[in-house]
Amino acid sequence: MSSVAFYLxxxxxxxxxxxxxxxxxxxxxxRRTARKxxxxxxxxxxALYKASRSTRAAPLIGERRVERIRHYxxxxxxLALRRLIRDKTRILAYGGSxxxxxxxxxHALAALGLRYGGRYAIFRRYQxxxxxxxxxxxxxxxxxLCFPGLEYKRNLSDARVSFAHNGAEFWCVGLDDERRVExxxxxxxxxxxxxxxxxxxxxxxxxxxxxxxxxxxxATGKPLRNRAFFDCNPPGRSHWTYKxxxxxISPTTKVKLPDFESYGAIQINxxxxxxxxxxxxxxxxxxxxxxxxxxxxxxGEFANDVQNALWKRAWIDESRALAAPAELERIVVAIDPAVxxxxxxxxxxxxxxxxxxxxxxxxxxxxxDDRSLTASPERWAREAIESFRFWRAxxxxxxxxxxxxLVASTLRRLDPYLPVKTVRATRGKIVRAExxxxxxxxxxxxxVGEFHELEEEMxxxxxxxxxxxxxxxxxxxxxxxxxxxxxxxxxxGGFLNV
Length: 498
Description:
Layout: H1 3-12, H2 31-52, E1 60-61, E2 64-65, H3 76-87, E3 90-94, H4 101-116, E4 119-124, H5 127-146, E5 152-155, E6 160-163, E7 169-174, H6 178-184, E8 191-194, H7 202-209, E9 227-232, H8 240-246, E10 263-267, H9 281-286, H10 291-297, H11 313-318, E11 330-336, E12 349-357, E13 363-370, H12 377-391, E14 395-399, H13 405-414, E15 420-423, H14 429-441, E16 445-447, H15 452-460, H16 472-487
Parallel strand pairs: 3-9, 3-10, 4-7, 4-8, 8-9, 11-14, 13-16, 14-15
Antiparallel strand pairs: 1-2, 5-6, 6-7, 11-12, 12-13
């Protein structure tokens, strides 16, 4: 492929007639002038392409050095995604792990920014994930590979990238940061990207897309079509992504979308991106998981609801909340500890939950946070204490079937004044979990946002013993809700032994 064709192919996938001049973009209503500038642009692109193949040192990005790959060639699946981006305005790329979805959507945003200028937002559920995964990693790598020589600035405090020549801005935002979200949603955007959208609650998506309203024109006077991008490792079929993009049904109104022709979905899997992955990643790491995990992270398929599971996905989705009430009666952080921290160890479940009261006196329960992890006792104890302080909780509820007094002593060594309630399971797990599941079936428990790993455990748990089911996060959830029920006098089963 020639040097000119290399870059023009990238832009023509979007029907771009890019006028790329260092430090500025020239806007001209004259098509003749535009053609002259495109001739200059082709020469400039050739020079940039040659520079991209040089062996010069990669530039520093923050404190990290970007790995330089001498030549970037989009895969067939990525080119198919580009055609979808060109033709549709709401695009979902779903599939397995490390299939190139994030890279390609970041490329699309950058290409739009080069052509139109304007503002663009990249949303993730957590600000830390938005910063480390996109702002510090994928986005700068994409710029170095696809647009070598392009000058841009990084604002570390705002997690924002801006192009030097036309001022296009790219904001990386976590929806858990209320101050930043309020600041971001005070502006209009040319395009919005929901990265790992299976973790984002649909009410948050609805609010964010109301800001998809910035009007822009390119150098030839062609107006921008505002776009929203979504990607995920596919969850269950009851998730809003499946309803919206596959079935064409509004998750809110449950009716057919009147503009479904503007929506597009494409499956992209690790096999499609194998040339860019480390040797053995697919056949060793991804293929070694459980069938349910392989279906999601290797084959990239939406899962059916598990028959006879104790929880149904619809119970969770239909009662999901964007935020908890301002007035909460009681907040607890529950811990289901693991006693080891090896690569094969179980996770330590850490879940924060709260109880609120309706005007008629009825209690509602809110799941606020899931900080479960595989870690040493000191590390999970610090994580639990941080959650306790963040939510200003009333107590930490810690199971002591494994670890005994060591669990409470580890917590109190780090915080001597921490109010710890120790609990011991005296009945089977399914017996302890059923009252909590009944609350879900009645719409009395609401998840504040999406907790994908926790919800996967809940909706796949059938209560059979010895089948290797993960339930560490689920156990912590059950302890948290049960503690709040007992404090409220609604649980008479004696599940807590404090």
